Amino acid sequence: MSVTITKSAIDLIVKKLKEPATIAMRRQNSTATLTWARRVYSTDRLSGERTEHGPHFFFSWSDADELKEFNSLIYMLPDGESLALGPGDFFQTGTHTIDVKDGRLALVGAP
User: Fold this and answer.
1) In whole angstroms, what is the distance from residue 32 CA to residue 25 CA?
2) pLDDT of residue 40
3) Dist CA 79 CA 65 (whole Å)
4) Which helix (H) or strand (E) holds 36?
5) Are the CB atoms for 29 and 61 separated by under 8 Å?
6) For a disulfide at 53, which of 19, 40, 71, 109, Cβ 3.0-4.6 Å?
7) Beta-sheet pairing, 2-5 with 95-101
8) b or e along 85-107 (b: 16 or more beta carbons within 10 Å of the residue's beta carbon)?
9) Which pLDDT score is estimated for 110?
10) Which residues of the chain fall short of a pLDDT of 70?
11) Eight-class DSSP state of 26
């Protein structure tokens, strides 16, 4: 198992973690969590039409019980902060690289 986060991705992650909206979501004693989804969908409220947006990363905050339940992989950022990566079962197998593509976090080589 191996996870590499490029410098540009780390810079973007640290920037996102310092944004007021991200800080406002933080719960006491929680760890920043970056979750990757293979497919993300949205549904138009008026038409009901469903759109697939493809792979996407989400930021959230997780407590110790959630990290354990979902077997999250913990990655230490250069500033000493912990970043949980999920889904844990996905990141704990294989080799993965997180980078920035078109201004967004991307999993290199993701299907």
Assistant:
1) 10
2) 67
3) 24
4) strand 31-43
5) no
6) 40
7) parallel
8) bbebebbeeeebebbbeeeebbb
9) 66
10) 1, 40-41, 53, 110-111
11) P
Residue given tokens 């409220």 in the structure block = 45
- Token digits of residue 65: 């019980």
Q: Which two tokens stand for residue 61?
A: 């905050």
Query: pLDDT at position 48, please?
Result: 83
SS3 100: strand
| DSSP secondary structure letters along 42-82 | EE-TTT--EEEEEEEEEEEEE-HHHHHHTTPEEEE-TTS-E
Task: Supply 31's token pair.
Answer: 């760890």
The reported pTM is 0.82
